């Protein structure tokens, strides 16, 4: 067993040095993360996480006024996200953002160059629902950025965050870049954190396409939560 662990450790070290796959690690699991949420989950952050970039581009195609695209567009995204989460989890508890935004913003390290920022509960403090109940795990949605031809490294790689993103040329894809943490609400620790990226090829773009983008995002989050379990 000791030899096997040593081999695994050496393999992991080589992978880190040579840059396996795409050279970034976009997910991180706590050693105690052994069971993904299945029947129920709590979620917070959905009130303020959604941001739409290139407002004029989206306003024109979604037929929403430029002055209203951030309000109406992000509201549509929030409602769709909650609806899809309710389909996925029979018992979904939505905690208001105020349950978590009162805590200081902290950085969570996923990789040598990849960090996510989010409001993390303080040690010894649990998040509670309106009835005072304490959900065992909470999905904290930190950021959900929607734009065109965006790349997640330009937002989360500290060496690249000053790069220009979202070219004004004719775009190829609508992008969703989103970061989140599955939080152990009983022991106050991050069980799993990730930054995901979705690229949706553009032919025409309507509200139904935006709905589908959010649906795909929820599917991606669920998939990562299951795949991130430490065996």
Describe the model.
The two termini are 15 Å apart. Strands 1, 2, 3, 4, 7, 8 and 9 form a seven-stranded mixed sheet that branches. Helices cover 32% and strands 27% of the residues. The protein has six helices and nine strands; from the N terminus they run H-E-E-E-H-H-E-H-E-E-E-H-E-E-H.
What is this structure's SSE topology?
Blueprint: H1 2-18, E1 27-29, E2 40-44, E3 50-52, H2 55-62, H3 69-88, E4 91-94, H4 98-101, E5 105-109, E6 115-119, E7 137-148, H5 153-156, E8 173-184, E9 189-201, H6 207-227
Parallel strand pairs: 2-4, 2-7, 3-7
Antiparallel strand pairs: 1-9, 5-6, 7-8, 8-9
| Euclidean distance between termini CA atoms | 15 Å
Mean of all residue-level pLDDT scores: 88
- Give helix and strand order, one letter per element, not per position: HEEEHHEHEEEHEEH
Task: Give the overall shape, derived from the CA principal axes.
Answer: globular
Structural class: alpha/beta
Largest sheet: 7 strands, mixed
- Rg: 19 Å
Strand portion: 25-35%
Work out the helix count: 6
Low-confidence stretches: 1-21
Number of strands: 9
State the helicity in percent bands: 25-40%
Summarize the model shown.
This protein is an alpha/beta fold and 231 residues long.
């Amino acid at each position: 067993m000791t030899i096997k662990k040593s081999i695994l450790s050496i393999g992991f070290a080589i992978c880190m040095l040579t840059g396996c796959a795409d050279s970034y690690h976009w997910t991180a699991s706590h050693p105690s993360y052994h069971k993904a949420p299945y029947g129920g989950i709590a979620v917070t952050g959905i009130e303020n996480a959604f941001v739409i970039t290139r407002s004029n581009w989206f306003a024109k195609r979604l037929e929403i006024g430029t002055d209203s695209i951030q309000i109406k567009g992000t509201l549509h995204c929030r409602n769709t996200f909650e609806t899809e989460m309710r389909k996925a989890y029979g018992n979904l508890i939505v905690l208001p953002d105020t349950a978590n935004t009162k805590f200081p913003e902290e950085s969570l390290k996923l990789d040598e160059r990849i960090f996510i920022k989010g409001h993390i509960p303080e040690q010894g403090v649990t998040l509670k629902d309106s009835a005072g109940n304490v959900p065992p795990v909470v999905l904290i949605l930190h950021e959900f950025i929607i734009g065109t031809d965006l790349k997640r490294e330009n937002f989360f790689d500290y060496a690249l965050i000053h790069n220009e993103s979202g070219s004004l040329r004719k775009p190829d894809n609508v992008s969703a870049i989103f970061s989140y943490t599955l939080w152990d609400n009983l022991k106050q620790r991050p069980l799993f954190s990730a930054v995901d990226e979705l690229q949706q090829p553009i032919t025409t773009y309507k509200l139904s396409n935006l709905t589908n983008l959010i649906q795909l995002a929820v599917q991606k989050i669920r998939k990562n939560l299951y795949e991130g379990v430490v065996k």
